[in-house]
Design goal:
alpha+beta
């Protein structure tokens, strides 16, 4: 969104860009979506594990199938909890689905 324009630049002004804001779990299971160049999952609420289906291996695998071969899946997380059990579980699950997982902190967000 525009609040991240400092990081992303004017990407939303690019006519080839389509922004979809939806329940990702339902979107990837209920629609025949096109291949994406980037998918972002915002789970800054990770102190609450009530939505674990959004960071399950099954969901991550479905997301991976929905990406272009050179696509990127970004998971936003609150940097105040980098060693929490939930954060560690999400990173371990990501690593079980993708061969390359990188962690980067930008302005207090992992």
């Amino acid at each position: 969104t525009r609040q991240f324009q400092q990081i992303t630049g004017p990407i939303l002004d690019d006519p080839s860009m389509t922004l979809t804001i939806a329940d990702g779990f339902k979107h990837f299971w209920q629609t025949r979506s096109p291949k994406y160049h980037a998918i972002v999952l915002d789970i800054t609420w990770m102190r609450d594990a009530s939505l674990t289906h959004l960071f399950s291996a099954e969901y991550f695998a479905k997301v991976r199938q929905s990406l272009e071969p050179d696509g990127i899946f970004a998971v936003w997380n609150d940097a105040s909890t980098p060693d929490s059990p939930i954060t560690r579980a999400v990173f371990a699950t990501l690593k079980s689905v993708w061969p390359h997982v990188a962690v980067q902190e930008v302005d207090g967000v992992l």
